[in-house]
Amino acid sequence: MCLAIPGRIVEIVDEENRIAKVEVGGVRRNINLGLLSDTQVGPGDYVLIHVGFAMTKIDEQAAAETLRLLHELGAYEPEVEQFRSSLG
């Protein structure tokens, strides 16, 4: 299963190329913010991530609710493991 998972932006790594470092379940990796070209995001913001791309900006409450639902569905650990394993 491949779902979008919430992550918190911890830093902007490359502003020109729209690359940010995000944290998901204690794992940090770089993602592409290019699909959010009309949206301002920065450290502390939450985004929904799918296959290395931020799909949309969400607020902290929506991130917490999404994480709760993923846990409830049993989908959280597989998604975090996929996120972790994509580090290369």
General form:
globular
CATH fold-level topology: SH3 type barrels
- Secondary-structure class: alpha+beta
Question: How many H/I helical runs?
Answer: 2
N-to-C series of helices and strands? EEEEEHH
Overall pLDDT metric: 87
Tell me the name of the CATH class. Answer: Mainly Beta
Cα Rg: 12 Å
Give a summary of the structure in a few sentences.
With 88 residues, the protein is of the alpha+beta class. It has helices at residues 60-73, 76-85; strands at 5-14, 19-24, 27-32, 46-50, 53-58. The chain is globular and about 35 Å long.
Task: Please give a structural write-up.
The protein has 88 residues and is α+β, with helices and mostly antiparallel strands. The protein has one domain (5-85): SH3 type barrels (Roll). Helices cover 27% and strands 38% of the residues. The chain contains two helices and five strands. Strands 3-2-1-4-5 form a five-stranded antiparallel beta sheet. The model has no long low-confidence stretch (mean pLDDT 87).
List its traits.
88 residues; SH3 type barrels; single chain; globular; alpha+beta; 2 helices; five-stranded antiparallel β-sheet
